[in-house]
Amino acid sequence: MYSTEHKKVHYFYNGVFYTRKLNGFVDDVLFEKIYGGASLLKKIKKIAKNKNINFSSSMINENLSRSWLNSGWEKNHTLNICILNLKNLATKTQVIEKRVEIKKFHHDDIEDLLKLDHKIFDPYWRNSLSSFVETMKSCNNNYLFKIGANESPSGYAILGETRKFTYLQRIGVKKDSQGLGLGDMLLKAVINFSIDKKFINIKLNTQKDNNVALSLYKKNNFEVSPRKLVIMKTS
Asked: What is the per-residue pLDDT for 199?
């Protein structure tokens, strides 16, 4: 009922929500609340216990987490919001030393990108085909950046754009290629591209305890917002 590959909508008397399997590497089921209060959250917590299901929420504002906690859910991850105001950058960053391929992100790119994604991220954070499709639908335009050899790229990023506001949906480098400055080059390519396109800003989320990523973003003039996002879990 709750572990399908694609999103499924559920209508309860006390709320409406989406579910889908998180990915193929963990047993968690994504829970995305459309509307509903404490009674819905308590109901889902009860279903999780009775059916031995682990529900993980979509990202929510940390200041909205109290009702979840009072309903028996727990905080699973806390995320920082980082913002780069492109109006504050008068010129591009340093020249990119290694080739970064930049193109519009299309559905045909997903199959190969999944293989790369699974070499970069830990199991919980790996994308599925359906999550890539949702990423594409969330913005008007999506741009794909790949660094390294075309036949065997070392890392990638996805930048989503809607009305000149952009969101860095995804960025990462394979573990065996980390420490070589490729992540910094990839991020600089995203920033330079955004300046050329006259985008207003770049936003991204990163785990609160990911000090390596936070250091990279701060080095490239991103500021950490005081507002946090959280992912809740039922157990």
From this structure: 95
